[in-house]
């Protein structure tokens, strides 16, 4: 037996027990008379002690240890004289009577710690080392717990988990397919599914009225912050239901997941927000509601005063950055450069500063009177000490750009607390969206889209072009 306990298991109740541990050497501290070794596995860290009167072979092994050596330790659990309350095993340590190096290791290219000193490229090159780090281990464990609870809840609700094929015919969806050549049929290709959409609809036709799958999907497209070529989604389909049925089941599912996996009790009904409201107030169909800074339409107040940038724009909108009136010119210039980045694409940034005494100052003062500037600030909900940030252009493009700025400011202000949650349903998505590049409308795939025939407008009397 390589170990009797894990490195995160021992407590004060185990004092005087003889145990065997195995794991990776996190750190070695040689103090001359004594050597301390932090031994790590995915369960935690236990401190190992090699004392002055320990056997010579044990001291020899301890003297040659390096980071990430794989080590087996046999010894007696003792109470630590200097306890470490930050560690679950901080009340004890193991006095080594035997050390066995199971595998030596080269010095790793980055530290295997909570916060590593390795950059993204280096950590991806040595992915097997990066996966030893506690943050990634926690993510893997969380993913496992979520998968278990997803299956448990949906199974109790009568859903069947059914695997669908990975090799399918190409179907028109939102991205390019990955194609796989067929050995049996030369010049013929399979496609990897972007989603199991067609396959799950076949299951509904076949009478399997509740289906789910934790499924891998593939899209041959460029990397984005929230998208990669292969990803996993919780895929569901139901028959003989309306929107309210879907919302009711999956709201209970969401609350179950928060309670069982995160230990968070959500007692209030989830907020519901129409898509157009989410876009006009937050510039996103998945808005972050953990903080305010809602957008305000300033078009009518901003236009007609001789400022050509606003006068020629389709839409002018802004928000009040709470407590940011004290931003320096350098900080505002940094925000301007942020929105002008290629990924965002704004031409510039207009600002209004509301001073502590209520006076207003703007980057476009020469075009507007103080009253007109104050009216825009008040429309944006600005109070004394706030900074109003304004963008303009095509409506939905401008809203998306301002969303990126809102999130950046919130990040700087520490408002995006990862331990705070504000879930909501975004409903009433549009059926089609306009693409400026192709000058065409594209269908928006969303489970709650339920268009009426009278809502569909044909362009230029062409049924192939739909508004």
Can you characterise this structure?
It is built from twelve helices and 21 strands. The strands form seven sheets. Strands 1-2-3-5-4 form a five-stranded mixed β-barrel. It has a five-stranded antiparallel beta sheet with strand order 12-13-16-14-15. Strands 6-9-10 form a three-stranded mixed beta sheet. With 467 residues, it is an alpha+beta fold.
Helices, by number, come to 12
Number of E-state strands:
21
Low-confidence stretches: 446-467
- Mean of the pLDDT scores? 92
Q: Provide the spatial order of strands within the biggest beta sheet.
A: 1-2-3-5-4
Overall spatial form? globular
Q: What's the story with the biggest beta sheet? A: 5 strands, mixed, barrel
Tell me the Rg in angstroms.
Answer: 30 Å
- Helix percent reads 25-40%
Termini distance? 69 Å
Strand-residue fraction? 25-35%
Label the structural class. alpha+beta
Quick take:
The chain is an alpha+beta fold and 467 residues long. It has twelve helices and 21 strands.
Write the layout of secondary structure elements.
Blueprint: E1 18-30, E2 35-41, E3 44-50, H1 56-63, E4 70-79, E5 92-103, H2 120-125, H3 127-130, H4 134-156, E6 160-161, E7 179-181, E8 189-191, H5 197-205, E9 210-218, E10 230-238, H6 243-262, E11 271-274, H7 275-282, E12 296-297, H8 299-302, H9 308-311, E13 315-321, H10 329-339, E14 350-354, E15 360-362, H11 370-379, E16 387-393, H12 395-412, E17 424-427, E18 432-435, E19 440-443, E20 458-459, E21 462-466
Parallel strand pairs: 3-5, 6-9, 11-17
Antiparallel strand pairs: 1-2, 1-4, 2-3, 4-5, 7-8, 9-10, 12-13, 13-16, 14-15, 14-16, 18-19, 20-21
Helix pairs in contact: 4-6, 7-12
């Amino acid at each position: 037996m390589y170990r009797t306990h894990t490195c995160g298991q021992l407590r004060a109740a185990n004092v005087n027990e003889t145990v065997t541990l195995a794991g990776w050497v996190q750190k070695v501290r040689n103090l001359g008379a004594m050597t301390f070794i932090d031994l790590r596995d995915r369960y935690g860290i236990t401190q190992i002690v090699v004392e002055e009167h320990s056997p010579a072979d044990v001291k020899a092994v301890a003297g040659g240890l390096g980071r990430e050596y794989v080590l087996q330790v046999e010894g007696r659990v003792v109470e630590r004289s200097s306890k470490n309350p930050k560690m679950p095993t901080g009340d004890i340590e193991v006095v080594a009577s035997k050390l066995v190096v199971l595998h030596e290791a080269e010095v790793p290219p980055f530290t295997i710690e909570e916060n590593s000193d390795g950059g993204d490229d280096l950590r991806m090159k040595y992915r097997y080392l990066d996966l030893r780090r506690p943050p990634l281990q926690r993510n893997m464990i969380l993913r496992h717990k979520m998968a278990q609870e997803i299956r448990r809840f949906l199974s109790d609700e009568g859903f069947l988990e059914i695997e669908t094929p990975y090799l399918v015919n190409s179907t028109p969806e939102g991205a390019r397919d990955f194609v796989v050549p067929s050995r049996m049929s030369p010049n013929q290709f399979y496609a990897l599914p972007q989603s199991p959409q067609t396959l799950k609809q076949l299951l509904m036709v076949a009478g399997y009225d509740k289906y789910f799958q934790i499924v891998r999907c593939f899209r041959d497209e460029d990397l984005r912050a929230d998208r990669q070529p292969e990803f996993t989604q919780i895929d569901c389909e139901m028959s003989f239901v309306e929107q309210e049925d879907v919302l009711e089941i999956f709201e209970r599912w969401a609350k179950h997941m928060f309670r069982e996996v995160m230990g968070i009790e959500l007692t209030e009904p989830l907020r519901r927000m129409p898509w157009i409201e989410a876009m006009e107030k937050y510039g996103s169909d998945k808005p972050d509601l953990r903080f305010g800074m809602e957008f305000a339409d300033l078009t009518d107040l901003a236009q007609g005063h001789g400022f050509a940038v606003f006068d020629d724009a389709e839409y002018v909108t802004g928000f009040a950055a709470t407590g940011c009136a004290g931003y320096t010119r350098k900080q505002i210039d940094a925000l301007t450069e942020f929105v002008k980045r290629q990924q965002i694409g704004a031409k510039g940034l207009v600002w209004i500063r509301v001073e502590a005494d209520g006076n207003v100052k703007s980057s476009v003062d020469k075009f507007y009177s103080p009253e007109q500037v104050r009216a825009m600030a008040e429309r944006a909900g600005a109070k004394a000490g706030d900074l109003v940030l304004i963008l303009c252009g095509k409506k939905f493009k401008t809203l998306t750009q301002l969303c990126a700025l809102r999130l950046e400011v919130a990040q700087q202000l520490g408002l995006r607390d990862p331990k705070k949650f504000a879930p909501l349903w975004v409903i009433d998505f549009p059926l089609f969206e306009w693409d400026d590049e192709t000058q065409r409308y594209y269908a928006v795939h969303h489970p709650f889209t339920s268009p009426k025939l009278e809502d569909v407008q044909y362009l230029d009397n062409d049924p192939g072009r739909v508004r």
